[in-house]
Design a protein that fits this description.
Layout: E1 30-31, E2 37-40, E3 43-47, H1 60-73, H2 89-102, E4 106-110, H3 113-124, E5 130-134, H4 139-146, E6 152-155, H5 160-177, E7 181-186, H6 198-203, E8 211-215, H7 230-233, E9 242-246, E10 256-260, H8 262-271, H9 273-276, H10 283-298, H11 300-319, E11 332-337, H12 340-353, E12 356-357, E13 359-361, E14 370-375, H13 383-401
Parallel strand pairs: 3-12, 5-6, 5-7, 7-8, 8-9
Antiparallel strand pairs: 1-2, 2-3, 4-10, 9-10, 11-14, 13-14
Length: 418
């Protein structure tokens, strides 16, 4: 059998409508300056799909430093992996400042957050070690666990009692294998907006021997008094042994980092294959991230504006009868009922008639019959953006309830649905 034969008529559940979706539902092209409003298919839309939490993507100080760093260093320097020829004082400085900010002894840069998570799990855990993880962990965690040759146990989402039950099983297994236990959860879950039960899980260390690894991609820069993340928010910095985040959210950049004890970070530097065998993060990006971190620390008004918008949006949705779950972070899911065609027609209506661009989540990511519209408020959104969005959501919700949407995929020729 030809290896490629299986691709001819099967693109997987997400790709079932690949012919109808490209350029609109899949791989859409947002154009213009990164902002609260951008161009989509030639028209201005209010955009709720960018993880630009603090509005740093187009902050004038950031743009200036990015441009100057690119002009000075280009995108090639430094050439080679960090261990061999790709290190610099700026790389070391960024790691030092990140570690200090999140309250850890040391930190290590990653080229990409997703790649870094996969490789970190692979490096930290041997076949004798046991992993316990939250059922709604991000795909990068799941992919890291696929590389893990040892045992793993999953606990129900944010269920500390079930986490303890799985820790009991893990302890029995670790006693047999002679390994250790790693518990993995998230600081902020990117789909639901729920905070992970980091502090409560850390308390279980009084009863069980394990280390706690927290992926705080959505919490870094948005949670805690200074923006230092979920450890600061939940007052459990010392209970988190491995702190992980990405620059792709609040920092509006590329790359990521992991932070923890010096000895653990020393081991990772010499054993994490994704970094040992990959080119160093380009200098222009490192210098730009130093500026972003500086603004994150010295301009609290950015986080204050973000949270003003979060509260205005989420309170407005609840006052208008929308279900947004139990989110207590900027991530704002709006739950509705309907099938695939309802979801596509609804999103098409929002974009074409109300100029609202947001992400939609349907089966197989969530159960059939459910729709999630996922909104990401940022510091650059305005009160007008929020008020227009609330009005638009109320209008499309009424159409959905009254079954006014056709049960077919919309066409994208520019026609507006009836």
């Amino acid at each position: 059998m030809d290896l490629f034969a299986k691709f001819e008529n099967k693109l997987g559940p997400i790709g079932d409508y690949a012919e109808q979706a490209p350029g609109y539902f899949a791989f859409p092209k947002l154009e213009g300056e990164i902002a609260n409003r951008m161009k989509f298919m030639g028209k201005e839309r209010i955009v709720w799909s960018l993880n630009n939490y603090l509005g740093l993507a187009n902050h004038p100080e950031v743009r200036k430093v990015d441009a100057e760093a690119a002009a000075q260093f280009g995108l090639a320097y430094p050439m080679g992996a960090r261990m061999m020829s790709g290190n610099s004082n700026n790389h070391d400085r960024l790691e030092k400042e990140l570690a200090e900010f999140v309250g850890k002894e040391d930190a290590m840069l990653f080229n990409y957050g997703y790649q870094g998570m996969v490789s970190a799990i692979d490096s930290l855990c041997s076949r004798r070690d046991v992993v316990v993880y939250d059922a709604e962990s991000h795909a990068c965690i799941i992919d890291g666990l696929r590389l893990h040759p040892g045992h793993r146990y999953v606990f129900k989402h944010n269920d500390v009692a079930d986490c303890e039950k799985q820790l009991q099983r893990a302890t029995e297994m670790a006693n047999q294998t002679g390994g250790g236990i790693l518990v993995i959860t998230e600081g902020v879950f990117g789909m639901s907006g729920n905070q992970g039960k980091c502090a409560a899980i850390a308390v279980l260390k009084s009863k069980y021997e394990f280390r706690l690894f927290v992926d705080d991609a959505h919490g870094f820069g948005t949670m805690g008094k200074t923006g230092a993340g979920i450890g600061e928010e939940q007052n459990c910095i010392n209970g988190i042994d491995i702190y992980f985040s990405t620059f792709a959210k609040s920092m509006a950049s590329i790359g990521g980092f992991i932070a923890g004890d010096k000895q653990v970070l020393k081991f990772l530097r010499y054993n994490m294959r994704s970094q040992v065998f990959a080119k160093s993060l380009p200098m222009a990006i490192v210098v730009g991230n130093l500026k972003r971190l500086e603004l994150l620390r010295t301009k609290p008004e950015l986080k204050e504006k973000l949270w003003h918008n979060v509260h205005r949006l989420q309170n407005g949705l609840k006052e208008n009868g929308f279900e947004i779950g139990t989110t207590n972070t900027p991530v704002t899911p709006v739950f509705m009922k309907g099938g695939l065609f309802d979801a596509t027609q609804l999103v098409f209506d929002l974009r074409e008639n109300y100029n609202i661009f947001c992400s939609v989540v349907v089966y197989p990511v969530i159960p059939k019959g459910q729709i999630i519209l996922r909104l990401i408020p940022t510091a650059v959104h305005t009160d007008e953006d929020i008020d227009l969005t609330l009005a638009a959501f109320s209008a499309v919700r009424d159409k959905l309830v009254n079954k006014e949407y056709p049960q077919e995929m919309p066409t994208f020729s520019g026609a507006i649905p009836a």
